[in-house]
What we know:
Order of helices and strands: EHEHEHEHEH
Strand content: 15-25%
Mean pLDDT: 93
Amino acid sequence: MTSVIALVGNPQRDSRTRAVADTVAAELSARSGAAIAETIELADIADELFRHPSDAVDAARERVLSADVVIVASPTYKATYTGLLKAFLDRFDTGALHRLTAVPILTLGSPAHSLAVETALRPLLVELGASVPTRGIAFPASEVDRRAEIVTAWAEAEWPRLRHALDD
Length: 168
């Protein structure tokens, strides 16, 4: 059975970014019958990210690698993703995510950053080897209360490509 993990790179726990990532995970799970494995909040292991070795970081890394679909979510920071997310993803070699399908999400404080999900986060995931078959989600943070509606509309448009990727 397919499993879905949400990876949240917000330095604050229980953020709007997490709410959006969890909604995407639930939507994809409902459409595919996939199990939602968990949500990994990088805020929980932030103090460990620059320790080598770190059992907590290694365990989170292994949990990501064990999934079939990883939802990678971050708020925008300086028109890109957080350093917290980058520090975690730096623990993966080029190509390490080769068997994963990834869905990139950036929560936006400003519509001026709406292209960052495609120009910054997607290329990073591709460099790490993930398949990224759908448009990323540039989610306006001010619309978090409408996340179910917005995510459902995104999934309606993107599900054919994602379903095809999961069937391969």
